From TrEMBL:
One of its GO terms (cellular component) is mitochondrial inner membrane. One of its GO terms (biological process) is intracellular monoatomic cation homeostasis. This is Letm1 RBD domain-containing protein. It is a single-pass membrane protein. One of its GO terms (molecular function) is ribosome binding. Keywords: Membrane, Mitochondrion, Mitochondrion inner membrane, Transmembrane, Transmembrane helix. It is found in: Mitochondrion inner membrane. PROSITE patterns: LETM1_RBD. The chain crosses the membrane at residues 120-143. Residues 160-354 form the Letm1 RBD domain. It comes from Mytilus galloprovincialis.
Length: 354
């Protein structure tokens, strides 16, 4: 009969054998000791108390802290998404319709955001950044529109910046309409010329053509003087500025395709999957001021837009690029920004349009 000492020795050897020679190593860990658990819990509770204290006694500082914390995480996630989508498009030749709405939006927006974020990231990677960065950050928040990406903006700053950007874009809509009216004079097809004339009359009377009326003149935007590749430099420049595109005419159709496939992703995923901010950004990028109107009205606008875009391809891309003029120029939320009730488009007698 084996003694207790012998059994202990055998047990110890078995443990050593399993530890060094077992092909399936242990994949669980025991709970930490009482002291470690106490310290971790104390640390978490202290952080929570600090947050609550700052929130109560200095709500402004807490608001900026929270915004920066969330903003940095969002920037990191969007950068990863942009890198992955770019790699799939550039190297794996992945088709645009395979991406989600969010992925396509990030792919369009992140290049400008990354340029704006670059100076702050350079400072963060410098030696002694832990000393410099806390000093630079408050300065950056004094000029958030210039020094910080939209990930770090408060809701108030976002609305202010997006509204001003929208005003700068829709100022080009009346000029685009002037170019359209002049180009229409050279349409040889009498039927299409008459239909375009009816659209101009509606726009002149502060109305909008219906989706059906717009789709009826789709062939006009595939040929004649409205085809994207045939537009004058001034005409294409105003269209590009309406969407915030590159001013290079050669990129007009390419960037329009991203909008087109984003539209189709919206239809696939549905409006229910979109947050209020997603809806607002989608309206802004398609020519409508979303602030001050109900969600139903925004969705109705996007519904009309997607009804047109689903009939568009690369050959009729010009029709989609004229969407803000045809669907949003006279919308009350846009007219409010363009001068209120006094705003009304009138045909120019002169043939030359800037």
């Amino acid at each position: 009969m084996q003694s207790f000492k012998d059994l202990s020795r055998i047990t110890y050897r078995r443990k050593i054998f399993r530890r060094y020679y077992c092909s399936h190593p242990q994949d669980t860990l025991g709970p930490p000791g009482r002291l470690k658990r106490y310290l971790v819990n104390k640390f978490v509770k202290t952080i929570e108390k600090c947050e609550n204290f700052v929130e109560t006694n200095n709500p402004t500082a807490f608001k900026f802290y929270k915004t920066f914390k969330v903003g940095f995480n969002d920037l990191l996630e969007d950068t990863k998404t942009y890198y992955q989508v770019s790699k799939d498009i550039w190297y794996n030749s992945k088709e645009l319709h395979t991406f989600s709405r969010k992925e396509l939006v990030i792919y369009q927006q992140m290049p400008s955001e990354m340029i704006k974020a670059a100076p702050m990231l350079v400072v963060a990677m410098m030696p002694g950044a832990f000393v410099i960065f806390p000093t630079i950050l408050p300065v950056a928040y004094l000029y958030p529109k210039l020094l910080l990406t939209s990930h770090f903006w408060t809701e108030e700053i976002k609305i202010e910046v997006y509204k001003q950007r929208h005003i700068d874009r829709i100022k080009h809509l009346p000029i685009i309409l002037d170019h359209m009216e002049i180009a229409c004079r050279h349409i040889p097809h009498t039927e299409y010329k008459l239909k375009m004339e009816q659209i101009f009359q509606k726009l002149e009377n502060s109305l909008h053509p219906t989706v059906e009326e717009i789709l009826e003149v789709k062939p006009v935007f595939e040929t004649y003087n409205f085809k994207a590749e045939k537009l004058s430099f001034a005409y294409s420049r105003h269209l590009a500025k309406t969407f915030g595109f590159s001013l290079r005419r050669s990129k007009l159709v390419q960037e329009g395709l991203l909008v087109l496939h984003t539209d189709r992703a919206i239809v696939r995923e549905g409006f229910n999957s979109m947050t209020e901010e997603d809806i607002n950004m989608s309206c802004l990028s398609r020519g409508l001021n979303p602030y001050g109107i109900k969600r139903d009205e925004k969705e109705n606008y996007l519904e009309s837009w997607t009804q047109i875009s689903k009939e568009v391809d690369e050959h009729s891309m010009s029709l989609l690029l004229h969407g803000p003029v045809l669907l949003a120029l006279n919308h009350p939320s846009n007219r409010h920004l363009l001068g209120g009730k006094k705003f009304r488009w009138r045909r120019k007698k002169k043939k030359e349009v800037v």
